[in-house]
Amino acid sequence: MTSPLNVPASQERWTPRLWGTLLVLCAAMFLDALDVSMVGVALPSIATDLGLSTSSLQWIVSGYILGYGGLLLLGGRAADLLGRRRVFLIALAVFALASLLGGLVDSGPLLIASRFIKGLSAAFTAPAGLSIITTTFKEGPQRNRALSIYTTCAATGFSMGLVLSGLLTEVSWRLTMLLPAPIALIALLVGIRLIPRSSREDSGKGYDVPGAVTGTAAMLLLVFTVVQAPEVGWASARTLLSFLAAAALLTAFVTIERRSSHPLIRLGVLRSGSQIRANLGAAFFFGSYVGFQFLVTQYMQSLLGWSALQTALAFLPAGALVALSSTKIGSVVDRFGTPRVIAIGFSLLVIAYALFLRIDLSPAYATVILPSMLLLGAACALVFPSLNIQATNGVEDHEQGMVSGLLNTSIQVGGAIFLAVVTAVITAGGDAGSSPQQVLDSFRPGLVVVTVIAAAGLLITLAGLRSRRAAQSGRTVLVARSAPDHESGLRTRHEPRSEEVSVGD
């Protein structure tokens, strides 16, 4: 696809229109992340106002995750086939409308329905927005810079959602639902003017309807089962049958994709080691963070007696660090390559979680909480942009929506699965008792699991580094054997450096 905004690799300065386009896309991603985190602090007020039970209340969160995680694959491919601009703008309009309705409804089922619709629309804006970036900015330093700003906005939105929710809930929980509506509307109006028009990607192509049906049904059922498992029991007949049905649907989906002439997902992309590591890394990173945030908010409010606003402010250093580093990460990736940057980020994440294991019943903010938050912010700043760069580099324009959908699906499904695992671990012992120490002791196994999840993500990244070094050694030996002596020395010095700049490896 060609675009009037395509940036030549040699161009260093971006035009105002290009900046405006990027900011519109960043605003949509910021809202997606903001909406995930902002509702958490408002849940007690919602329950009181609408008279919701705990099981109904969880669906205000789970409904969004279900729509988002279940339809991302379809959203990504729809962007490729129907036009990225069209899909992005329509979905953003639906998001704004659902936000408005969510703040005005007066019943639990309607609120849950509005949350599902918002998740559904985010499942289309996220991959469409990411693929607009990757098809507008040339692969290399320019795209890396754009992606670092884009993904930093997502991490910032997730962190700022806690703070904004703490402030708005003091007035009314409805404001947390209404806030995204005017922002989305402004982004929509600006986006209509700035986002470049592109030719539809479906000319001469068919639609993989069976793949879309089975793939979407499989993801919806998988996310639904994982979300419900802690409540109905992981070993219950309902959970096991649901997992079995999801596996059957996934098997059917893979079979259809292998035989389809126009597949929803070209399975060949999953033969790429860097693609697999990017998706697994995203699942493990976000999954560990969601579990950590869940435990930490419970610890701060239930055991330390902090208010919702105090809890939100405790997370602020992490969000601030991510926001301040937004324009720097692209150049870091250019120099060191995504595998190294991701490995460093995961290392910081493991240290942050391990440090938090030292918590007790006294609020040791300066010695435990603040250092953990700063390490967490640094990890988010390094890992999220690098994962997006690694997943989208080396991919043809007509498949950018597809790989974007895959990556975002990994993030959402990883968050749902690992949060359910952490929840199951801390509730495995039954009633933790009324003693604050007993409650704290019930949290520690969950923190250990979160740390193990992050460590597993680090091992996946290190495996990629080892395979890459082996490949570089093989190329260096071949050059040394085939080139004249003076040329051999030159190639041996520069070839590894060239590979480091190839950040998609």
Summarize the topology.
Blueprint: H1 16-50, H2 54-82, H3 84-104, H4 108-136, H5 141-169, H6 173-178, H7 180-194, H8 209-232, H9 237-259, H10 273-303, H11 308-324, H12 329-336, H13 338-356, H14 365-392, H15 400-427, H16 436-482, H17 485-501
Helix pairs in contact: 1-2, 1-4, 1-5, 1-7, 2-3, 2-4, 2-8, 2-15, 3-4, 3-7, 4-5, 4-15, 5-11, 5-12, 5-14, 8-9, 8-15, 10-14, 10-15, 10-16, 11-14, 12-13, 13-14, 13-16, 15-16, 16-17
Overview of the molecule:
The structure is a single chain. With 505 residues, this protein is mainly alpha-helical. It folds into 2 domains: 16-197 and 260-501, MFS general substrate transporter like domains (Growth Hormone, Chain: A), CATH 1.20.1250; 211-259. Helix content is 80%, strand content 0%. The chain has helices at 16-50, 54-82, 84-104, 108-136, 141-169, 173-178, 180-194, 209-232, 237-259, 273-303, 308-324, 329-336, 338-356, 365-392, 400-427, 436-482, 485-501. Helix 5 packs across helix 12, helix 10 runs antiparallel to helix 14 (365-392) and helix 13 runs antiparallel to helix 16. The two termini are 24 Å apart.
Describe the structure concisely.
This protein has 505 residues and is mainly α.
Short key terms for the protein model shown above:
single chain; 505 residues; Growth Hormone, Chain: A; 2 domains; disordered C terminus; MFS transporter
For the record, the CATH architecture of the largest domain stands as Up-down Bundle
Helix content: over 70%
Q: Terminal Cα separation, in Å?
A: 24 Å
Oligomer: single chain
Number of spatially distinct domains: 2
The total count of strands amounts to 0
Q: Helix segment count?
A: 17
Task: Output mean pLDDT.
Answer: 81
Q: Structural class given helices, strands, pairing?
A: mainly alpha
Q: State the fourth-level CATH superfamily of the largest domain.
A: MFS general substrate transporter like domains
Strand-residue proportion: under 5%
Order of SSEs, N→C?
HHHHHHHHHHHHHHHHH
Q: Radius of gyration, rounded?
A: 23 Å
CATH first level of the largest domain: Mainly Alpha
Largest sheet descriptor: none
Here the CATH topology of the largest domain equals: Growth Hormone, Chain: A
| Large-scale geometry | globular
Provide the low-confidence segments as ranges. Answer: 476-505
